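Figure 2 data, in text form.
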Amino acid sequence: MLGLPLGVALLLQVQPQPPAMAPATVVRDSAGAVQPPRSAPRRLPVTAEALATAFRDQRAGELFYRARAARLAQDSSLRSYDARVRTRESLGLNIGVVGRERLVYRKESASRVRWQQGVGAHVELTGSRMVAPIATARNERNEFLSNLVDGVDEVIPYYPGYESLGLGGRAEVSVDERRIVHPLAEGAEAYYTYALGDSIRYRLPDGSTVQLRALQVRPRSPQWNLAVGSLMFDTKSGQLVQAAYRLAAPRNASFLRVEVSDTNELGLKARIALGVVKGIVPNARHEVSEITVEYSLHDGRFWMPRSRYVKGVSQIGAIRVPFTMEHAYRYGSINGGDTLPSIVVNTPNYIATATQPDVPDSLTGEAARKWRDSVVKVNRAARDALRDSLETGACDATGTRTLGRSRYDGQLVVAVAIPCDVDRLIESPDFTTPIYEKDEAVFDSANRDQLISAVLSLAAQGAIGSSGFTLPRVQYGLSMTRYNRVEGLSTGLLVEQQLGGGYVSTAVGRFGFADRRPNGELSLARTNLTRTVALTGYLRLVSANDWGRPLSFGASVSGLLFGRDEGFYYRATGAELTFQTSRGPTLEWRLFGERQRSARQETGFSLIGDFVPNIAATGDVSAGAAVRWAHSLGLDPRGFRTLTDVRLEGAGGDSTYGRGALDVTLSHGLPQGLAGALTLAVGSTVGGVPPQRRWFLGGNQTVRGQSPDTAQSGNAFWLARGELGRDIRVLRLSAFGDLGWVGDRTRMADVGRPLSGVGIGASLLDGALRLDVARGLYPRRQFRVDLSIGARW
């Protein structure tokens, strides 16, 4: 699937596959589908020392234990509710931190949910729509139908035993550290510390008073499955009223699905093989940076969920996959007089069984594989048949089709009524805004952002190494390897260590086999996953280019094969203090002091083509500051979209200078299935700019068809790129023309004949991957073929 289940699996990873700990029993649900067995939990003991240090004071402990009891208690006086539910789930695809935001998938639903104690939940699906701009129309349609079959739209606000913190599924009584460690579960005292926070008191219309108190939750160690944030409770009942938290550290997960704890069972040869494969296949990095849950009070006693929100990102190299989930609930009645009919379960839970069911212990090797494959095949076939029946099957006289299923390990039965004409869901009057736009009236993002800013600041961190350090993240292999005309083949090793308190230390060592010079960096950073401050000392090779990623692996392949090294390099030794925020527009600033010097070309080897000469940098010692602000607006590929990039830099020392540039890309759909894009950029300088801080034009990122050249540089520039294309869903074909000028800032009006090139391009997945065939017009008349990732359009 393209949508939320994939995003949740990547980001939360709440159910990794541990080694079997007890004999497995084949369990089937009420419809006969095979269910995975449950194994014994894994957790630390709650020692006397842990209890003695868990609470800042006695009152924090009292509130904690009151909240723990309330979490699993069932209020028998809540007999039923009638709610309206709205959901929105989005998955994106971005290249690098600075660049265009692309929407891979977005799904919205609207439903009426009626729940009754002892019966279950009746869901009337009133709206469902989705877009997948980078998929074919048929795949988008199949995904829409699959969502209906899999129950993705069946979002239940509350049922007895549900997980109140918004992690999905049922509430677990005890801690299991193979999943996210719930801060209120039994055994959580060994993983967290707790302190009282703010207090709020307000009076209800009947004259009674409600007092709320926050409990600050801090992890003892920087683990991916521990939370940091604030939980607010009703002090009288212990019921959760508001939660804002994030996971304490990123999770670095191998595609091989081998847990660190499992490697002890591997032999020496298997460990060596595992290390080799990890060097070839990069690990994924998952971050969950924001989770909020809010409740509203009804009838003066029932705290019911009002909203849930999750935000995170998965990253593989330069590829970033951001994910958000938004739920909003509004209640028509609590304990109303309606009596709901009983629910007949007629549909298996395909979400669990269509993937990889656990194999009985009696089967091993080839027999186990065949058993698993046969179960998956049968369940997928049944799922696909049900999906197809939504458009081709017979319908009852009510005009709806009802699917009944057992959810959450049999804890809740759900009946969902789907219109026989499923297209009615797409045109639902519940949707009042286009799917690509924010719906502030429904999801109340402004108040949520205020809550996150207040609770999840950079100062909201866990303890520093109080429970020992986690294992470091080690990165090597292809993801750390590059090729250019200065270093030749260069590779390195990165070691990252979580220290606690939001602090992360990183050491990078690198060696080039052509220049035979080591490079290295040592940094200490503090982060809350949305804002990062870092102090770094470095000896590095630097690209003077303001566009593209010349030192990336992709650019290195082009250099090795075709001699297409578009970077101009110099060496820098120094220290820097940096700040970066990835919430909203990207903001980066840098304070630096460094010594710059020339980097001589040390190799001319490539399979085809020749390298252009490198720049001759001056030996400058300078100190200064730089700032970069980037903002992407608009997600609809056929709507109005902008991409803005502002860069400013100033330094003093052997050279005193300032430089600034503005890049803006505009795009919009046109009649007859056409679309157009226009990029305008301008930059200039003041003072005596050294050669390595001039502007350079030429190459795929500026004037296509022209090769980068040291002769095409100056202390000022302007650039214009225009395109006209036609979208074919996944693929966009376009014709383009580029103009650019670079030279002396005192002669910007004396343009003469600018650099120019024309050509045709094929943009895949909204510019995530792009192929250009360009013809240079001036000064070089030549053909160039370029493949790039993360194109502007």
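Caption note: The first strand starts at residue 27 and ends at 28.
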